[in-house]
Design brief:
- By secondary structure, this protein is mostly helical.
- It has one domain.
- It is built from three helices and no strands.
- It starts with 9 loop residues before the first helix and ends with a helix.
Length: 102
């Protein structure tokens, strides 16, 4: 929507979406997915999660930018593909086994 409706440059859109998703996913992971509401320090977990987020931000900005600018993949498809790969290879394992480890 940011790219097609508002005319925002794709790389800006890729990065902006990550900041919103970070807050939402942290809460979902903490209180639902990993059932960690009673485990670990909220502050320490969030600091660790910010490390995971930093890696995700870089990867989910660089990969779709490379796909769309260099390989001419449609921006929405490039972003979707990147999110799947980064989630499975970086976000989920990092959050499950490092951030919300019991």
């Amino acid at each position: 929507m940011l790219v097609h409706v508002l005319g925002v440059r794709p790389w800006v859109s890729y990065a902006a979406v990550q900041f919103v998703a970070n807050a939402v996913t942290f809460l979902l992971y903490k209180y639902w997915a990993f059932e960690a509401r009673r485990h670990g320090s909220l502050r320490l977990q969030y600091v660790k999660q910010l490390v995971i987020f930093a890696g995700s931000l870089v990867l989910n900005t660089a990969i779709p930018s490379l796909l769309s600018y260099r390989l001419h993949v449609e921006p929405v498809l490039a972003f979707a593909l990147s999110n799947v790969v980064v989630y499975l290879a970086w976000n989920y394992p990092g959050n499950r086994y490092w951030v919300f480890r019991r």
